[in-house]
Structure formats: structure tokens, C-alpha cells
Task: inverse folding
């Protein structure tokens, strides 16, 4: 279903708002367009520019970052367990 045509001025303002950190939902409400339209405008090439509007991290990079965060959390928890076991042993609760 084709909706209303979004003019170039609005598209520029949407991109600027997004670059300034405004959430997509707020942008959509401000310009009376859907969040999907906001996402599409952000991803499209602005006229006269080459390349993507915003370079994104590849899926692999995102996954690697999440794995690294989980591994750090595991190390922190393992250290906490060792500290708790040492406290128990020191107090005589270790069997």
C-alpha cells in the first residue's frame, strides 16, 4: 500500500534528528510517519552522496562483541565464586 510521498526536506530532517540521537519512535511521531519509514530513510543514500548513509558494523562484528562481553562476565563471576569459596573456607564452612 503506497502512502504519502515524503519530501526531501523532511528526509534531511529525519536523518539529522537520527544523527543527533533522537529515537526513531520520536522522529516518526514528530513527522507523522511510521517507524519503518524512518528506518528506510536513515538507510537510504542522501542525494549527491556516495556510500551508505551510516556505516554499520557487520553482523559478525556484532556477534564477536557480544561474545566478548559474555566471556568477560563469565570471568567476573568465576572470580566472585572463588572469592566466596575462600571466605567460606576461612570461616570453617568448607567440607
Result:
Amino acid at each position: 500500500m503506497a502512502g504519502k510521498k515524503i519530501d526531501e526536506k523532511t528526509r534531511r530532517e529525519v536523518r539529522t534528528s537520527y544523527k543527533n540521537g533522537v529515537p526513531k519512535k520520536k522522529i516518526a511521531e514528530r513527522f507523522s510517519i511510521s517507524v519503518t519509514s524512518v528506518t528506510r530513510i536513515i538507510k537510504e543514500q542522501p542525494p549527491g552522496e556516495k556510500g551508505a548513509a551510516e556505516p554499520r558494523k557487520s553482523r559478525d562484528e556484532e556477534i564477536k562483541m557480544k561474545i566478548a562481553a559474555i566471556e568477560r562476565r563469565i570471568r567476573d563471576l568465576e572470580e566472585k565464586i572463588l572469592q566466596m569459596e575462600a571466605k567460606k573456607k576461612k570461616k570453617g564452612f568448607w567440607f
Observations:
- The chain has four helices and no strands.
- The mean pLDDT is 85.
- Helices lie at 8-19, 24-31, 35-43, 59-91.
- Residues 59-91 form the longest helix (33 residues).
